[in-house]
Amino acid sequence: xxxAVEVGQVVAARTIEVTRADLVRYAGASGDRxxxxxxxxxxxxxxxxxxxxxxxxxxxxxxxxxxxxxGDPGAILDYGVRFTRPVPVPDPGHATLEVTATxxxxxxxxxxxxxxxxxxxxxxxxxxxxxxxxRL
Length: 136
Known about the structure:
Blueprint: E1 10-18, H1 20-30, H2 40-45, H3 55-70, E2 76-83, E3 95-107, E4 112-121, E5 124-135
Antiparallel strand pairs: 1-3, 2-5, 3-4, 4-5
C-alpha cells in the first residue's frame, strides 16, 4: 500500500511538552548524563539559559510525528537535522515544541518523499534542515 502526497501538503502536526523528568529518563536510557541536562547551576555556569534538552532527545521526539503518520517506523529511510538553538526546560513546568511535517519533494519513480519538519520551541526555530526521507 502506498501513500499519496503532494508537495506543500502538511501531513502531520503536533505539540510536544518536554519536562525535566523526560530528560532524566533519556539520560538514563542514552547514557548521556551531562549535567547541562539536569543541573541548573552547572548549566548557567557554562553560559546556558538553564537546563537544556539533549539534542538527540529533541531530534528523536519530533520525528515521531512522521512515524505516527506513516504507521511504520521502518518506512523512514534517512533523517537528519541541524541543531540551531538549545531547548531550555524550566522547573517547574515544561518546554513546548511545535512540530509541523510538510511534504517538500516527491519522487514517484522511487516511491519516496522528503518530509521537512518545522520545529519551534517557544516560537523560535530550534532545528534547521530537519529532513526525513520516507518510503511511501
